[in-house]
Automatic annotation (TrEMBL), chains A, B:
Native species: Rouxiella aceris
InterPro entries: NAD(P)-bd_dom_sf, P5C_Rdtase_cat_N, STEAP_metalloreductase
Protein name, entry field: NAD(P)-binding domain-containing protein
Entry keyword Oxidoreductase: yes
UniProt KW Zinc-finger keyword: no
UniProtKB keywords: Oxidoreductase
Domain Pyrroline-5-carboxylate reductase catalytic N-terminal: 3-93
GO function term, MF aspect, one: oxidoreductase activity
Lineage, top ranks: Bacteria, Pseudomonadati, Pseudomonadota, Gammaproteobacteria, Enterobacterales
PANTHER family for this protein: DUDULIN-RELATED (PTHR14239), REDUCTASE (PTHR14239:SF10)
Length: 206, 206
């Protein structure tokens, strides 16, 4: 229960792993490139386990912290090794010119990934509306989650709270479409309206 | 320059008209039902003009404050009467079961409306990410805008600032897709995560 597995070794993987280690969880870092996993593990306060790519992850919560273009292949590589896991999809399926989403109309990256995981696994959309560098350094942030399974959603909510984030349930997994649009909008606001990449969306409770 | 025209007489029309009148603009209220326009005008501090439905609006900025399902018909009724106008589309094209958007994949309500207006008119997406009752009573709020024409966008930005809102440019009109997703997400957060309809999204500038 107290181990969180993170597949990936980029900026978002590092930001999430950093907060997770600080919150007192055991972190398992997994990468197709073991050297990259080791580099990330060495950066973490208290160190981390290194997981074998493709083997059953140690954590019940598995964070898929890879680019959207790689996500389906990673999930296929794992196959039945993800049985019963809660899989957090953090991806932003954004076109290379950053003007739109590459997902099919009426779907989302999270829903597409959900089609590829074992039936006993649960996909939860989270973290995609936060920039990694903001997540790494800003303590209090709002985090939005979408998922179909209530228990998986509750467990991810608890996880986010322990990271110091304020979770907001947006609805079922189909609402990942709105979260992925918000990911694109965050970039749009950073480039156009805010003139800064040090931004985050918060909910104002009136 | 100092007159704002509002087509519509519902809750959002009233909220926008109220802030606009308080900001010192002359408000022109227009409805297919003149009695409804008169009722709204009577509520406004300092009163308002009543415009004739389908005639050339008095304002250079025309706020299309009608449901998405009616917007195309209203724009068609106006036809050339909207020549050269800045048309603010505030609609949320949400399905009746509030689980998704009714717009074609890869498009937005704003882009669909833009196909129907005269070539000399400019469509700006704004106001759709704010609940009317929040807009009516909360002074400081963030407002997001998307549009292709820089001059139209700048003028709407100035208008929003005069209403006490903090405008954020999200990008071109195709980014209205993200704003309409945010409108749906706002409802999702209100129903699921926040347990309150008194919410708004703000940008945290770190």
């Amino acid at each position: 229960m107290n181990t969180i597995s993170i597949i990936g070794s980029g900026g978002m993987a590092a930001a999430i792993a950093g907060r997770t280690a600080k919150a007192g969880y055991t972190v398992e870092v997994i990468s197709r490139d073991p050297a990259k996993a080791q580099t990330l593990a060495d950066q973490l306060a208290g160190g981390a386990m290194i997981g074998e790519y493709g083997a059953v992850p140690a954590g019940n919560i598995v964070i898929l912290a890879v680019p959207y273009a790689s996500a389906a292949r990673v999930v296929a590589d794992y196959g039945k090794a993800l049985d019963g896991k809660i899989i957090i999809d953090i991806s932003n399926p954004i076109s290379s010119d950053v003007t739109g989403l590459v997902t099919p109309g009426g779907s989302s990256g999270a829903q597409e990934i959900a089609k590829c995981v074992p039936a006993s696994a649960h996909v939860v959309k989270a973290f995609n509306t936060l920039f990694g560098h903001v997540l790494a350094r800003t303590v209090a942030l709002d985090a939005f989650i979408a998922a179909d399974d209530p228990q998986a959603k509750a467990r991810v909510s608890t996880f986010l709270e322990r990271l110091g984030l304020r979770p907001f349930d947006v609805g079922g997994l189909q609402m990942a479409q709105t979260l992925e649009a918000l990911g694109l909008m965050l970039i749009g606001v950073a480039k156009n309206g805010a003139g800064s990449w040090n931004i985050a969306f918060n909910v104002d409770l009136g």
